[in-house]
Request: fold
Amino acid sequence: EFRRVLFRSPYFDALKIERNVMRLILMLIVTVAALNIITGLVMLVKDKTGDIAVLRTMGATQGAVMRIFFLSGALVGLLGTFCGVVIGALFITFIDGIENGLSKLLNTEIFNAEIYFFESIPAQMQLGEVATIVGWTLFMSFASTIYPAWRAARLDPVEALRYE
Reply:
């Protein structure tokens, strides 16, 4: 009975809400990054219109052109996800050292133990949360490459070369 009451306290409910909000914030950041991938690939398609037309006239199929642009966008997403996971893991691992370094650099105590009631910053990486964010990131990066790759694939070589 005591244990059930203890874990239903408003403090633990607030922690659950905080975790959900942090997950939502990370997903929104990833969505903005995916929009940047779309923008970059659309600009790349626009810039390489003549090259795409030459490839198509030399016999490249629509599927081949689509694969080229899909793979370039997917590679950006994979590398970004990998770097984000590595940097996040390093940050969590060395969070106390980072806090101490910032405190010395700024000549102030960032997390005063008298105010926050802990001597070190409690940080723990949970694989379920990491997997959720990594899955969302990979999904968004792959999904964001489809439209620019499709646009590059359906480019008409005659029209593209006419204005080159």
Notes: Helices lie at 2-6, 10-47, 49-57, 62-93, 95-106, 113-116, 127-153, 157-162. The mean pLDDT is 86. Residues 84 and 90 are 10 Å apart (CA to CA). The first helix runs from residue 2 to 6.
